[in-house]
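Entry 14. Ran structure prediction on the chain below.
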Amino acid sequence: MEIKYGSGVIEIDFPKDRTVRVLRPFQDNHLQKTDTLDWFRLHAEEKLAGFLETHRPKTVSIIAEDRTRSNPEYPVMIREIIALLKSAGCGTIRLVIAYGTHPEHRDEDNILIYGKENLAAMEIVGHRSDDKSGLTELGRISDDNILYVNKIAAESDAVIALGSITPHAFAGFTGGRKAVLPGIAGYESISVNHSKVRMPGVGMGVLDGNPIHEEMCRAADLFEAGRPFFMINLVRDCGGHTAGMFAGEWRDVFRNGVDLARSIHEAPFHVPADVVFVGTGGYPRDESFYHATRSVAAASIAVRTGGTIVLIGEFARGIGNREYEKWLSRPRGEVLSLPRERIVPGVHSAYLMAGYLSRAEVILMPGMDRHIAEQCGLKMMDNIGNIDQYLIRKYGKDYVSYVIPDGSETLPVME
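Output, C-alpha cells:
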C-alpha cells in the first residue's frame, strides 16, 4: 500500500497473512469540480454585493488565515473581494492576518499566500495577540474569559472573514468562529479558551457539548453584534479541490460547511482496533511530530484503550516545537495533572498528545532521532515485519488492525 511520505510516497507491504481494514473518507467522485472563480461567482459574489449595498462601509477589514492553513484559493478570492469593495465605494481595505498565537510571516510568504497585486491594494495588518496596545475589549464570553480582539478589525465599518472547514483535533472543526477566536483574539483570551482541553466534550469532529467550540461561538456572536460581519468559508475534498463555498452570516456558513465536511471526511468503523496504522498525508503534515497531531487524533478515535498507533511519516524536523517537546518529555501524569491556568498555548498541544499517549502506545515509522523520540515516550521501529512481530507478541496473531492512509483528512466515526 502506498502512503504519502514527505514529498513522495512510501510503500508499506503488510505480511500476506495479515488482514487489515482500510478506513478512508467518503469517495468524492461525484462532487462538482470547478475553479475558484466560478465557485466565488456562483456562491459568494451576489451575497457579498448585497451586504456591501446594505452597509456601505468606507473601511473594511478582511480577516484571512495564515500559512498554517493551506488556502491556494486566496489570491483569486481576495482579488474578487477587492474589486467588489472598490465598486461599492470602499476607501480603505485592510488585510488582517489571523495569526492567533502563530509566528508572523515573511514578506515572501504573504506574496505567495495572498497574491502580490492584492497586497498592493490593501493595508497589511499582522495580528499580534500579545500586543495589548493593539487590542480592544468586547466583553465576557464565559465565567472565566473576556474577549479581546484586534482593535483595527473591531473598529472597521465592516469585516469580511475568510476560512476553510476541516476536522480539528480539539475544536471539532476549523473555520467559522475560529476567525475571531483564536484568529484575531488576544493572548489571554486564547489561552483561557485552549486551556479547556482539560474539560469533557473536547475532541475531533465534536461540536455538541464541546466547551472550546461553544466559547468560540460566543466570541463570534459578540464580535458580530458590534459590526457588520460577513463570512466566506471553503470546504475541500480529500484531493484538495474545492467541494463547497458558503457565504453570509457566520453561523449559517459554519453549519452548512460542517455538514458538507462531515460527509466528505467521515470514515465509519464498528469496533475499536488493537492497532491503527496511520499516515499523515505527507509534507507539510509530516514535517514534524507536532504537525502530525491531527493524524494521531484521528487514529486515537479508532484504536482501543491499550492499543497501538503506528504513525508513518518523515518527521525531518523531529518533534518540531521546543515547548511541545519539553512537556512531552516530562512524565505523562505530570502533564495530565497540570491545572488549567498552566495550560497555555503550546502546552495545550502537549496535553492533548499526552492524553493520546496514555490511551495507546505510539510507534513512529520510519521515525526521527531515536533518543528524542524515546524521551517523549514514543517507540521507533523502521520495518513493518518487525512491527508485526512486536504486535503479535503484544496482542496475539489475530490482532485487529485498521489502516488510515491519510489521518489529516479522515474523521473515524464508530457506528
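The domain at 2-25+267-414 is CATH 3.90.226.30 (2-enoyl-CoA Hydratase; Chain A, domain 1). Will compare against last week's run tomorrow.
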